[in-house]
Specification:
This protein is mainly α. It is built from 14 helices and no strands. It has one domain. Helix 1 packs antiparallel against helix 11, helix 8 crosses helix 9 and helix 9 crosses helix 10.
């Protein structure tokens, strides 16, 4: 049996895998539904599964429902809005470039979330965490060059491109969302971490569905109609999205953000596996080196924290 203090590790790995599968499903939906339509899928079709998870935690785990407060609502609002924007930007990047590149740029969040977690939540930054971040960040940089014929030049100059800037903003959005959701879970005083995570997830996905769905209905109702017609493919993406979010929320309710999001970079390895299997994208020697550095960082954050 896994010790309680290490429980966040398998939960995070499972969340990263589910998120990779969801990203792949959303990529196929984007040409049909558009960027915002594919973003709505994540929340609208994920909400029923999130509610089922909350019911299971309540009925099977016998954890009482917490009482929301003003701090909880504020943190959920912050996480919901920033996650909507970050998801839309990530899908836009993947539509413009390739699947693995979109994930790589979005994962610039690992540095940003370390700063946000320290500033907003007081999560500590240990030397081991900083070492892990350094290895992982360098690995991500090596995985992300745009011009594979001149990888070192693009490694230095590539971050000034439009795609890279969108990725940085997307990463900041995901970082702030992580802060919001961990803050919301911690604001539920006395709630056990499974219930705090499940309750926060349902609140966030309900709010996101209302905000984005309502905005799309007012601006372009045809997008919402297309999302409803694509319910078969969307249900799978929603299920994987809810599973990923359940894992992230639970891990973040247990462990400081910087550890969870650094280990979450294992999603890049899953992303490259999917890119090779389904999208026929090939790995270069530079990308292999990046993956090795990434793996070193993941080992450091899980074994030496």
């Amino acid at each position: 049996m896994i010790p309680a203090e290490w429980l966040w590790i398998p939960i995070t790995i499972g969340a990263a895998f589910a998120q990779t599968v969801r990203n792949a499903a959303q990529r196929h939906l984007t040409p049909v539904l558009g960027t915002l339509g594919a973003t709505l899928v994540r929340f609208l079709y994920g909400l029923p599964f999130a509610v089922l998870w909350l019911a299971a935690v309540y009925l099977v785990g016998h954890f009482p429902l917490p009482a929301p407060n003003a701090a909880f609502l504020w943190w959920v609002l912050l996480g919901s809005i920033t996650q909507i924007g970050a998801t839309a930007l990530m899908l836009r990047i993947m539509a413009e470039r390739n699947f693995a590149l979109g994930i790589a740029y979005a994962k610039s969040e690992v540095i940003q979330v370390a700063v946000f977690g320290l500033v907003f939540l007081g999560d500590p930054l240990t030397p081991v965490a900083l070492i892990a971040i350094a290895f992982c960040t360098l690995g991500v940089l090596l995985l992300a060059p745009i011009d594979r014929r001149h990888p070192l030049r693009t490694l230095v100059a590539g971050w000034a491109t439009r795609t890279a800037l969108l990725g940085l903003v997307s990463g900041a959005g995901f970082g702030l969302a992580a802060v919001g959701y961990r803050g919301a879970a911690l604001a539920l005083d006395g709630a056990a971490f499974p219930m705090a995570a499940a309750y926060t997830l349902v609140a966030a996905q309900a709010l996101q569905t209302l905000l984005l769905g309502g905005w799309l209905l007012a601006r372009d109702a045809q997008v919402v109609a297309r999302v409803c017609r694509a319910w078969r493919a969307s249900l799978f993406a929603g299920c994987m999205g809810a599973a990923a979010s359940a894992g992230w929320f639970t891990a973040m309710a247990i462990e400081p953000l910087v550890h969870v999001r650094t280990l979450g970079l294992i999603e890049l390895l899953f992303g490259y596996a999917i890119a090779r299997r389904f999208f026929r994208e090939r790995l270069t020697p530079l990308e292999i080196m990046g993956m090795v550095l990434l793996m070193i960082g993941l080992i450091v954050v899980t074994s030496g924290r």
